[in-house]
Amino acid sequence: MAKISVLGAGSWGTALALLLYNNGHEVRLWSALEDEVKMLSEKREHESKLPGVRLPEDMEITTDLEKCLAGPDVAVLAVPSPFTRSTSRQMAPYVRDSQIIVNVAKGVEETTLMTLSDIIEQEIPNANVCVLSGPSHAEEVGRGLPTTCVVSAGKRETAEYLQGIFMSPVFRVYTTPDMLGVELGAALKNVIALAAGTADGLGYGDNTKAALITRGMAEISRLGIKMGAKAETFYGLSGIGDLIVTCASVHSRNRKAGYLMGKGYTMEEAMKEVKMVVEGVYSAKAAKALSEKYEVEMPIIDAVNRVLFDGESAAEAVKNLMIRDRKVESPLLPWD
Question: Any long-range contacts for 59-62 (C-beta under 8 Å, 24+ apart)?
Fold first, then answer.
């Protein structure tokens, strides 16, 4: 049995806390929001974000960050990506040397273009930072539906240790050394999911969605490989797996926000309607900036940015994608 603190009591943090508790570990769940802690403590259920998923009575739920970081074997950082830096900064005074911190949020910081693990390492340089990602909606993990994820760490033994902690009959975990690829796939798929949702809102069909998923992954992998990630990662769980589920699922907040924009909502109206952090909106500018920095063509990412921030209509963005110059699908494949 391990002692584990889950920091962030939104839908994903709550679902992971329950998973880890059911795996036999001692789990504390932390939130910075007093009202959220009060609601979870009294109701034992996140009524707005994870209704119907019950937390056990003996799971401690608290706002005391120092207490949560006093000696856990593993700290799971599950706050939304825009709050990763500020929460890491709060954590830093209480983190012991080589403390394992598993980031489970998905994003790239707009102002610095840093991955979330890079941010955590910058704010908590004495920590051992790892990543868990993959196609894993909290609504399904909380209900115990079969799910697979991937964990990445600087050392194989750390990844295998975490694999054992998270693994269960309904939660299968693989390992990989490619932390950069895992994080880029996780973050950038949210931007593509906005595009897929927008196409749904416009009334387009399965052909359109398949095109966005396939060409979206081509863009993500081009950038990732240029940045030093491995191609194999983008064909795995945190790449194409996460992209498919985020573009297609009714649980996806990014797809839902895109759908609403396809129906004519503004970005602000869509985010308000979704009532949760829409990670793709925060990652879109960063993705475009990365494409420019590394000189990688990413037309779908560009189109999402124009719709979000430049006032271009969703229908016009799709049209502009379709009428671009003719291309070869796989430029590295030779003709006979």
Answer: 59/17, 59/21, 59/27, 59/28, 59/29, 60/27, 60/28, 60/29, 61/9, 61/28, 61/29, 61/30, 61/31, 61/37, 62/28, 62/29, 62/30, 62/37
